[in-house]
Amino acid sequence: MTTVTLPSQPQPSILGKKILPGMSLGAIIVIVIMIASFALHMLNIESIGDANAYYTAAVKSMLQSWSNFFFVAAEPGGSVTVDKPPLGLWIQAIFAYFLGVSGFSVTLPNILAGVFGIGLLYSMVKKYMGELAGITAAFVMAITPVFIATNRNNTMDGMLVFTLLLAAWAFIKATEESKLRWVLLGAFIVGLGFNIKMLQAFLPLPAFYALYFFGSKEGWLKKILNLGIATILLVAVSLSWAVVVDLVPAENRPYIGSSDNNTVMGLIFGHNGVSRLESNGGGGGTPPQSGTQPGQPSNTQTQPQQNPGQSQVQGPPPAALEACASQTQGAACSFTTQNGNTINGQCITPPNISELACAPAGMIPGQAPNGQQPDGNPNGQQNGGTPFSNETGSPGVLRFFTSPLSKQMSWLLPFALISIVLALFGSRIQLPVESGVHKALILWGGWLLTCVVFFSMVSGIFHAYYAIMLAPALGAMVGVGFAQLYTWGKRSAWALTGLLVAVAVTLGFQLFTASQYNEFGWWMLGSGILLGLGIMLLSMSRRAAYALIFSAALIIPTYWSVMTVTNGSNNNLPTAYEGGQNRGSQDGFLASPPQNGGNRQVNAEMLAYLQANTQDVEYLMAVPSSQQGAQYVIETGRPVLYMGGFGGRDEVVTLDDLKELVANGELRYILYGGDRGNNQDITNWLDLSCKVVDGITITQNGPQGQPGGQEMKLYECR
After folding, report:
1. What share of the chain is helix, strand, coil (3-state, %, to 5)?
2. What does the alpha-carbon distance between residue 355 and residue 671 come to, in Å, rounded to a whole number?
């Protein structure tokens, strides 16, 4: 096989032609992409409501005192911290200070990070592979559904991705200029990323180090020394806030939420460390048994006692029951809904139903028969199972290629993986690496493969929106592959065959993926039409032909991103569009749960009562966890004591602490009960020493948000 060598510097093209002073046509195109991406991010923005209530309540708390701000207190009373490091929430708090606390103000930093990240990715990919690759990379990242979904939420992953792109820029500078200061800057920025999402920030670090180590022209020993110095700086910056907080006596700061031992170090290596790798790996802040997770409001419906039937959920349709009439648990099944959708899935036992019913693939909740959570599995998985498998599926090599994870960012993953193979033959291999294509391969291919392998294998806490970590590398490798094939096509006819094969494989995967979510429509014909037109134009315009052939693979992911924005908003867990399997209430239990939009899940009757009777005490009330209290913090700005931290499993306060707060006149009302996170000693004390407030009862939903949960009562203690 003949190796085609690309020039070390990208060849000039019409895209590099200066249209305005200092600005090429390619740069103008990317600015248009950025503007369009911002518009898409802002479309239907009101649907996000308060966004992630856990974090929004924390921002409201942080603006009330410098102590709350520094320690990232989850509620204004400073009882417990958020289970994340501070930098991302500090940035959100700054925006909220000027714009007011709202779902929009705390989400805006992520939106801006996403939009500016598009331009940053373009500039870096262009450096090694030219304008065409840079524009393609920018557009692919802009139409990645999980990129849009996650940026439209106040989880901090969007800011983390932008921070890591800045770090990649610094390591590129270090590689090209062989200067220690750029290596140190890159390590410093990754350390800042650690203070946004902790160990998640280290995922692309092997690719960053490899680019500098194999691409810089310095001596090997000097590069090793420089990377060693950079690593020391990286660790120092990463752990700076954690060390300071852990040096503060526990009685002078909030409890460290979701930690095993009330230390940030315990949080780093427990809940945000080992628990992410394996399903049984420690961490005091394991999510509540309802299946919620950090940042997700609970499946708690707050409603007056006089409306007991208000939250009834329709059972499975008859066709779903018939499909599994003679089947066993877990058997494959299919049926047709009243609106004509064909549901393919597995036979499960739905909550409160004694019969098997067919539920679609990717929507099988990790629960035991009859909808009950297995004892000791707070993450919503069966014994030995994977937490949140209804979001991310089970570990394995096909995790990104099958439901439920495939809809997030995998639409162009086959093309990107083919591009990695093509890039290997883009130039003669030599050390130090000099060719742009191999530098791009080390950086972006290394980033992509590291994340694919890591997330495919982990069996611990893994949410679908973590897939945004792959978006920059995915876009970059797709851009690299397309630019290579276009350049090779000037010299060899086989490049066209390579493009057609790559697009055909990608289109086949996209259609297969769409079928997993029962999403078919006339618009999909656009992919075939563009592919056919591109082939027809080959004899007239190679440039137009290549553009049309490649564009055929962009139709479905673009549609999916638009639908992610327009088809409602998951305020708790950012996720891509769920597809046709969740349309319409006629699908019964298979339909998506209603989104709360801008409606706050507070009990107006209880809130009015508390406001009227707590003006002389510090705390509005005490609740088992943030799941019951975050919305009340947002509504009132008052301290709400999270007795069990985020998920009810932290020992933020003891029974003696509660007694002391009541005796000192700081706390009067405690909301308690249900079946999660309760302490029997506290329950006994409430029954003996406090009285139930008549007429106010909160119904806490059962597993997976289904009915059947137990009642929580409001106690008055004096």
Report:
1. 55, 10, 35
2. 36
